[in-house]
Amino acid sequence: MVPARPKVPAMNEMSPSRPNNLDSFWMPYSDNRYFKQNPRLLARAEGMSYFTPEGREILDGTAGLWCCNAGHGRREIVEAIQKQAAIMDFAPTFQLGHPIAFEAAARVAEMTPEGIDRVFFTNSGSESADTALKIALAYQKARGQSQRVRLIGRERGYHGVGFGGMSVGGIGGNRKQFGAMLPYVDHLPHTHDLQRNAFTRGMPAHGVEYADVLENLVALHGDTIAAVMVEPVAGSTGVLVPPVGYLNRLRELCDRHGILLIFDEVITGFGRLGTDFGAERLGVVPDIMTMAKGLTNAAVPMGAVATTNTVYDTVVNGSPAGIELFHGYTYSGHPLASAAAIATLALHREEDLPGRARAIEPYWQEAAHSLRSAPGVVDIRDCGLIAGIELAPREGKPGARAMDIFRKCFDDGVLVRVTGDIVALSPPLIIEKPHVDRLIGTLNDAIHAIH
Ligand SMILES: Cc1ncc(COP(=O)(O)O)c(C=O)c1O
Question: How buried is residue 92: exposed, middle or buried, by Cβ count under 10 Å (0-12/13-18/19+)?
C-alpha cells in the first residue's frame, strides 16, 4: 500500500506567488519533513525586507544567505539583467568569448588587492572553492613541484559542498553521509577559544599560535603541501574571527614553505567587513581568493576565483600550446551573471557600501554586545557587519534552542540565521540604526522567551 502523503496546509491557488504543493522540491540543507508541515515562505523582497505570500514584512538580518549586500530588488541590477537577457541570453566561453564577461572580470580585478588581477568565473561558492584548489595543484605542477598534492584546510572551515570544499572544510556533519573524502588533505585547528576570548569585540587577542600548527604539518608532510585554504572570518560555523596576527602568521609560514595561501572570501568579500575584501581589512594578501554571493548581489548565481598574476602566468605560460587549464563550467562568465556583476560592482562603488558598513559598525557592535545579559548567552563575536551570538545548548539536544529562536524571530518579523546553537547575523550593508534596533530587540525577546 502506498503510504498517505503528509498533509500540506491549504494554499491559496489563486495566488501565483504560492506553490500548490510542496512535495517535489527536495529542499537543500533543510528539515524537509518539518518545513513541509510548517512552511515559512518568502514571496517578494525589497530593500531591507522580505514579504511573505500573505504580505507580512520580515526584516532581513542575514542579507538572504550573506549575499544581498546592497539590499533587495535593486533597480539598477534588475534592469541590467533584463537588458542583457534581451541582447544575448547565452554564449559559450570555451574557445569563444563575449565582451561582457571580460568586462565583469576587469571590474572584479579592479577591486581585488594589487597583483591579484586574473579572474576565473564559476557559478557558486562551492565551485569557486573546488576551482581554487585545482588551480593551486596546477600551479604547483607547472612550477615543477608536482609532489605538492596535499591540501590543508581548517577545522570548522566551510568551503561549500563539492568534494574539494567538503574535504578541505572541517565540518563533520557535512561529511558523514558521503563516505571517502579527497585523499591528501589535512587540517589546522580552529581558532575558537571561548575560555580566553569570550565576548571579545572584534579580533580576539589570543590564538595567534594556532597558525603555528602549520609548521607541524610541514614537519609531517614535508614538501608535499600545495595550498592552505581558510576563510578570513569563518561564517557558516558560527562567526569565528581570526585572532590578532593569526592570518599574518599563516602568510609568513606559507611563504617560507612554498605553499599557496587561499582565502575563501565568499562571505567576507564585497563590503561585509567594511572593506572591498576581508584581505584588506585584515591586512593580509593571499595568492588566490574565492568569491560568490555579493558579487552579483545574489540576483544571478555567480562565483569567481581571483589569482595573482604569478599563479596565472605560471599555469598559462608553463603549459604546452593549447588549453592550459582543463577546467571550466558551461556557465562560466554567463552573460546575465556578468551583467548583474557589473551593475552590482558599480552600485558598490557609487553607494560606497563598504563605507556604509564601516560607519554603522560601532553601533552594530554595541547593539550585538547588548545581548550579553540575555539568558544562556555564552559568547558574542563580531567583525564588520557580522555578529555571532552563541548560546548554551539544551541538554542532549544541540541546535534545538537556536532553531526555536530562528522560528520565533521569523514569526515575529525578523530573519536570523542559526548554525548549531549560534545565531549568525549579517544584514544588508544598507542597514540603518532603526533596523539594527528592531533586529536586536526582536532577537533579545526571542532569547528571553525560549530556553
Ligand atoms: C565561506 C564559504 N565558502 C563557500 C560557500 C559555498 O557557497 P555556495 O553555497 O554558493 O556554493 C559558502 C556558503 O555559505 C561560504 O560561506
Answer: middle
89 SS3 class: coil
To 5 degrees, how large is the angle CA 117–CA 123–CA 126?
Answer: 90
- Please report how many Cα atoms fall inside a 13 Å half-sphere around the Cα of residue 285, on the Cβ side: 10
Centre of ligand 1 from the C-alpha of residue 347, in Å? 23
pLDDT, tens only, 50-96: 999 999 999 999 999 999 999 999 999 999 999 999 999 999 999 99
Using an 8 Å Cβ cutoff, are 246 and 282 in contact? no
Residue 22 burial (C-beta neighbours within 10 Å; 0-12, 13-18, 19+): middle
**CA 451 to centroid of chain Cα atoms:** 29
Q: Could you tell me which residues are beta bridge partners of residue 240?
A: 234
Ligand 1 binding pocket, CB closer than 6 Å: 124-126, 129, 158-160, 231, 235-236, 264, 266-267, 292
pTM of the complete model:
0.95
Beta-carbon neighbour count of residue 244 at 10 Å?
A: 16
Q: How far is the CA of 128 from the centre of ligand 1 (A)?
A: 9
**Residue 102, C-beta contacts closer than 8 angstroms, at least 6 positions apart:** none
How far is it, in rounded angstroms, from Cα 295 to Cα 342? 9
Q: Residue 160 carries which side chain, given as an amino acid letter? A: G
